Amino acid sequence: MSNSASKVRVTQVRSGAHRKKDQRATLRGLGLGKMRRTRELENTPAVRGMVNKVSHLLEVEYTD
Hints:
The protein is an alpha+beta fold. The protein is built from 2 helices and 3 strands; from the N terminus they run E-H-E-H-E.
């Protein structure tokens, strides 16, 4: 199975308040910004990089 077919489910579990501006922008780019909001995104290098940048604020689950 290729990476483009797999998904990554991200849930925001920590607040973006009092974080650096670029981290808040990354949360917005992932479609997050409020606590317990969940998004299911394509597992692409760009998304993985964004998730890595704010991984301390997220709960991440990779699915097929």
